[in-house]
């Protein structure tokens, strides 16, 4: 039998009955689309509230003994509206009673939130005529609440053997005690990826409301070009910098199996979207610059010490100071006599000052200081490895726009270059970088 295609539909793709109809058409237009992973209903219009958020509010109000009737009515209206619109006969009241019962028994927030996907799964499986499989039987977490790949990839795989087609709700699985545990927000992407691995899919289609990734943020660059193909690694670099369409960890289950992910648009199914593939599959398609992304609000601690490279314990001491303050290190550019530690701006200023005092005491630098409000911009592309002049082009573009580059980081993978600039220059810099790499060729 031909390998299946796993299809995951995001919240906006399943927000109402009109969207359900589009989803059915998509699933039925390709017989290989045998495993369907739904999110909870998302927004039908910009000011709408996602069902997952309504469920979190419901749980809060219930536990605070406040009036939750409006929120509950809202949730009921979404699902009843879908059922009516797609013409399926189902009494959803027992399901809602169940949620209230469980709330009364002190159900966890995660259990309540998971009902968004669960109920959407029930409706979708009836509508498509597919088996309903609760992910509690497939996706497992350990006692600490971490995803347990060993158990999932054995028990989950067995459970899906011989299944012809199924709807498996996204976002959650079960703990060793059988209780529901959810992934972090947007986690249905991860469910889709795990299911793709379990069934040995030829492709994981992730259906959303945009036709794939754009090279740069359209809120900053006007009409940026789309990305047709991107490697897993390039995507990691971009999503670390905040380009978010897919959950950060969604590539991990499929990476070692080389299962490609195709980001598709439920509202424009004929658009090709973006393919996320392994490096080997990029072939000659590796572009010079695949994407440009960035993030504001970093703090840079800069340290100077002559002959720092000859002090064997210097880096270890530095790292243990950060560890003792429970701080994540984002980057660490260095030269022979200086080193910079890039950390998140959400580390409060008094804490940064304490860290600096410790560095003075323990590492005995010649000087140490810090700057807040630094933005990092990354330019990503496998083609950089084989193209000379990437840095020259980047810095010429930034210089032309009058932007002062405060620091530079190039990953050892040579798949990206990161520059640090002032937060005030962020938008201008993104536009300048886009223009310098992609703008002129279009004119
Ligand atoms: N419904 C969950 C959320 O809103 C999970 C998902 O949509 O992937 O985060």
- CATH architectural category of the largest domain: 3-Layer(aba) Sandwich
Q: What's the number of helices?
A: 14
Query: Overall 3D geometry?
Result: globular
Helix share, percent:
25-40%
- The domain count comes to 2
Class by helix and strand content?
A: alpha/beta
State the separation between the terminal residues, measured CA to CA: 49 Å
Question: How confident is the prediction overall: mean pLDDT?
Answer: 94
Number of strands: 15
- By CATH, the superfamily of the largest domain comes out as Acetylglutamate kinase-like
Cα-atom Rg, whole angstroms?
25 Å
Small ligands present: aspartic acid
In a few lines, what is going on in this structure?
With 443 residues, the chain is α/β, with parallel strands linked by helices.
């Amino acid at each position: 039998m031909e390998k299946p295609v796993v299809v995951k539909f995001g919240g906006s793709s399943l927000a109402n009955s009109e969207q359900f109809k589009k989803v059915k058409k998509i699933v039925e237009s390709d017989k290989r689309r045998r495993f369907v992973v739904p999110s909870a209903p998302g927004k039908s219009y910009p000011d709408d509230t996602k069902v997952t958020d309504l469920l979190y509010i419901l749980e809060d109000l219930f536990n605070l003994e406040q009036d939750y009737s409006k929120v509950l009515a809202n949730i009921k209206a979404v699902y009843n509206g879908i059922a009516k619109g797609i013409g399926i006969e189902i009494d959803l009241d027992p399901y809602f009673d169940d949620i209230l019962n469980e709330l009364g028994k002190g159900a966890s927030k995660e259990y309540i939130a998971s009902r968004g996907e669960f109920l959407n799964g029930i409706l979708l499986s009836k509508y498509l005529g597919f088996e309903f499989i609760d992910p509690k039987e497939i996706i497992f977490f350990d006692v600490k609440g971490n995803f347990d790949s060993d158990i999932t990839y054995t028990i989950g795989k067995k459970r899906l053997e011989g299944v012809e087609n199924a709807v498996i709700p996204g976002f959650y699985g079960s703990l060793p005690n059988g209780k529901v545990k959810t992934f972090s927000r947007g986690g249905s992407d991860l469910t889709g990826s795990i299911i793709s691995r379990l069934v040995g899919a030829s492709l994981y289609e992730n259906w959303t409301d945009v036709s794939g990734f754009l090279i740069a943020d359209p809120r900053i660059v006007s009409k940026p070009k789309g990305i047709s193909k991107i490697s897993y690694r390039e995507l990691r670099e971009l999503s670390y910098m905040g380009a978010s369409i897919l959950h950060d960890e969604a590539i991990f289950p499929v990476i070692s199996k080389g299962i490609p992910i195709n980001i598709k648009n439920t509202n424009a199914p004929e658009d090709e979207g973006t393919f996320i593939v392994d490096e080997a599959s990029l072939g000659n398609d590796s572009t010079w610059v695949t994407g440009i992304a960035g993030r504001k609000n970093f703090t840079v601690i800069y340290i100077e010490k002559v002959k720092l490279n000859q002090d064997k314990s210097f880096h270890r001491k530095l790292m243990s100071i950060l560890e003792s303050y429970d701080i994540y290190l984002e980057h660490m550019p260095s030269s022979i006599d200086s080193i910079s530690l890039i950390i998140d701006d959400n580390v409060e200023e008094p804490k940064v000052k304490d860290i600096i005092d410790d560095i003075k005491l323990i590492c005995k630098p010649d000087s140490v200081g810090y700057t807040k409000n630094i933005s990092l911009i990354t330019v990503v592309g496998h083609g950089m490895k084989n193209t000379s002049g990437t840095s020259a082009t980047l810095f010429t573009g930034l210089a032309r726009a009058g932007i002062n580059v405060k620091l530079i980081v190039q990953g050892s993978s040579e798949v990206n270059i990161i520059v640090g600039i002032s937060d005030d220059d962020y938008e201008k810099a993104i536009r300048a970088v886009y223009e310098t790499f992609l703008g002129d060729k279009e004119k």
